[in-house]
Amino acid sequence: MTTGHSELSAILRRARTALVSGHVNPDGDSVGSALACYHLLTGQGIATTLYSIDPFPYNFLFLPGADRMSHELPAEEPDLYLIVDAGAPHRVGEPLHRRLQNTKSPKILFDHHVNYHDQGSFFDQTFIDEHAAATAILLYRFITDQGLPMTREIAVALYAAVMADTGSMRYDSTDREAFLALGELVAWVDPWAVAAKIWEETPLAQLRLLGEVLSSIRLLAGGKAAVFEITQEQLRRYRLGPDHVDGFINYARGIEGVEVAMRFREIGPRLYRVSMRSKGSIDAGRISHEFGGGGHRNAAGFDFSGSFDEACQLVEEIVARVAR
Ligand code: 5GP
Ligand code: MN
User: Fold this and answer.
1) HEC states along 241-275?
2) Which ligand is closest to the CA of 288, given by its number?
3) Domain segments of the chain as ranges
4) Residue 202 pLDDT grade (very low, low, confident, very high; cuts 50, 70, 90)
5) What is the number of the ligand 1 atom nearest to the C-alpha of 116?
């Protein structure tokens, strides 16, 4: 038994209300982990707000309870804040971040990001393990360690979260613990039904845009870097949101000889949201941290201000510095 776990159990026994949140532009781990918490807490009789600053990605809306998500913070202060997968306190979004800075209620964090942001001094209790394959694994540890009841709703949320964050159990973070957890969770889950919802209902417009984007990939730094841009005009023209283009970067990383892929998604004039994916020796999290972002060794992100050509120049410089 982990001491932290039983302390959290004691907090849960006293709480009547709670708020659960993941991070901006939530991914599958953020959504699945938040939903698992939501079902866990409501199952304990705690009236829980499932908050998100941004919409859930379209392909995770099938998860039970996803329709309870609210963009509104409750007027009353909840007895407990439970934050999952955020990477940094401010990544819950401005309004909730401000609340968290001023509240007297306990703030709990479950996260598997590298702790660049000293989250331990911001939260009252943290469960951080950068080696965990997903934040959902940390919740699975808590639930099993404390003997809390597993339900179908919780299991499917955790299962989807782990599958999403490990690239279906392929990425470097995939380990025995993740396989063992899925082995237990699959008692409640139909793997094909979940996979079909997440990966087999792609809008045709998304594939058409992917085609356009793949044709525009630039190889830089002697072929070690693959970069591409997604403009606001493209998203408008194809009527797609950011959730539709999140997976595109994996094609760029998958190119022979490429060690790092970078996607520049335009979010304003001379402003880009950058996603990095690496394989081999390049530490994407550390590079992102230099630019005010963060993440993991092989997957990270940050905001970049400048033109796309300036961005390409920057990539040349970074790769020249860090590639071996
Ligand atoms: P993505 O490229 O999918 O947005 O992010 C890759 C990984 O890096 C995810 O685990 C994500 O949570 C993390 N990440 C992305 N952007 C940021 C950022 O600006 N700050 C921090 N701390 N983590 C980020
Ligand atoms: Mn995430």
Assistant:
1) CHHHCCCCHHHHHCCCCCCEEEEEEEEECCEEEEE
2) 1
3) 5-198, 204-322
4) very high
5) 22
- The answer to whether the 5-198 and 204-322 domains have the same CATH topology is no
Contacts of 174 (CB under 8 A, 6+ apart): 133, 166
Residue nearest atom 19 in ligand 1 by C-alpha distance: 293
Q: What is the mean pLDDT of residues 97-116?
A: 97
Q: Which residue has the tokens 């990939």?
A: 217
Q: How far does the centroid of ligand 2 lie from the alpha carbon of residue 222, in Å?
A: 31
Residues less than 5 Å from ion ligand 2, measured at CB: 27, 29-30, 85
Q: What are 149's two structure tokens? A: 């009841």
Tell me the one-letter amino acid at 225.
Answer: A
- pTM, 2 dp: 0.96
Would you state the CATH architecture of domain 204-322? Roll (3.10)
Pocket test for ligand 1, best of 29, 33, 91 (most atoms within 8 A of CB): 91
Q: How far is the CA of 46 from the centre of ligand 1 (A)?
A: 30
14-50 confidence digits (pLDDT tens): 999 999 999 999 999 999 999 999 999 999 999 999 9
The string over 154-190, giving b where at least 16 C-beta atoms fall within 10 Å of a residue's C-beta and e elsewhere, is bbbbbbbbbbbbbbeeebebbeebbeebbeebeeebe
Instruction: State the ligand closest to the CA atom of 29.
Output: 2
**CATH code assigned to 5-198:** 3.90.1640.10
Q: Which residues, at least 6 apart from 114, have a Cβ–Cβ distance to it below 8 Å?
A: 130, 285, 289, 294, 295, 296, 297
- Closest ligand 1 atom to the C-alpha of 117? 22
